[in-house]
Design goal:
Elements: E1 12-17, E2 24-26, E3 31-34, E4 40-43, H1 51-58, H2 60-78, E5 101-103, H3 106-109, E6 126-130, E7 134-140, E8 151-154, E9 187-190, H4 194-198, E10 200-205, E11 208-213, E12 217-222, E13 254-258, E14 263-269, H5 271-283
Parallel strand pairs: 1-5
Antiparallel strand pairs: 1-2, 3-4, 6-7, 7-14, 8-9, 10-11, 11-12, 13-14
Length: 284
């Protein structure tokens, strides 16, 4: 059995762990005191995990739950029946709240937090601009891993060209010459986007764009308004400002991941342009 925690004196408040150990409330401790006006009052200390303070300030439902837990515990300890209509008090008029110390089991003090906030995937922003025979799509990925710990890769003697790929799978990040090192065409550093890149995919359909970068980025957007619907002036695609004017040809797409600019570049032709090129080739 773990040793008993040291005593903190008579001001310590025994704390009972509820079935959900994140919320803690007093079991039966009561203090008699007076308010600022000199009127007698009964004081109960409701002690909760400090991590709940910021959450409760933003979440009204959580705040009501915490208050309900406190009132139920006080009712159990005293036999009082407390009302649930609570006005917001003027805390300053009640005088300063003295600090209180709570004893908790030693095993709990050494345990890691059981509650972890996990950020969901972010929808990256994207835009497009016309080119001579199609368009250029730019997907912004600003929240890339820091470049302070690059993965160094020894490459063959000649400097590689920027890799490109015909969709379906993102190319390797563009190599970057490490700072404060002499120029060496065979020694390049890849920013630590490699792990993110290995779980990233990019798929293009004639009317749809899908981009996934592990748990960090998820984008699934139509490139054109739904077929058969009336145009709406303020309609926008997911993560973008405006739809494309016409369908694209997925087989003509070339993508490049640029860690330096923190963006993914996609060059693609209009489907009508590719069809004309094919007809011209058949005639020849």
């Amino acid at each position: 059995m773990p040793p008993s925690p040291p005593s903190h004196g008579h001001s310590a408040v025994p704390v009972e762990l509820s079935p959900d150990p994140v919320t803690r409330a007093p079991r039966r401790e009561r203090r008699d005191g007076t308010d600022k006006a000199g009127q007698p009052c009964i004081i109960f200390d409701a002690i909760f995990n400090p991590d709940l303070c910021a959450k409760a300030a933003k979440d009204a439902e959580l705040r009501r739950t915490i208050i309900e837990i406190s009132l139920v515990r006080i009712e159990q300890a005293t036999g009082f029946k407390l009302g649930r209509t609570i006005a917001t008090p003027n805390i300053k008029s009640k005088g300063p709240i003295p600090p209180r110390t709570a004893r908790i089991p030693a095993f709990w003090a050494s345990r890691p937090s059981l509650v972890q906030e996990v950020n969901g995937p972010v929808t990256p922003m994207w835009s497009w601009s016309p080119t001579r025979d199609g368009c250029r799509i730019v997907i912004k990925v600003p929240d890339l891993p820091p470049r302070s710990t690059p993965v160094v890769v020894q490459l063959p003697g000649s400097a590689p060209t920027n890799p490109k790929l015909q969709m379906r799978r993102l190319p390797h990040p563009t190599p970057v010459q490490p700072q404060n090192e002499p120029s060496n065409p065979s020694h390049f550093a890849y920013p630590s986007t490699r792990a993110l890149h290995e779980t990233s995919t990019l798929d293009l359909e004639a009317r749809r764009l899908i981009f996934s970068a592990g748990p960090r980025y998820q984008l699934d957007t139509p490139l054109l308004p739904p077929a058969g619907t009336k145009p709406v002036s303020d309609a926008k695609p997911v993560g973008g400002d405006k739809f494309l004017p016409t369908t694209v040809d997925p087989d003509s797409a070339i993508a490049e991941w640029s860690p330096k600019d923190q963006e993914i570049l996609i060059s693609i032709k209009w489907a009508s342009v590719v069809e004309r090129e094919r007809e011209k080739a058949r005639v020849v």
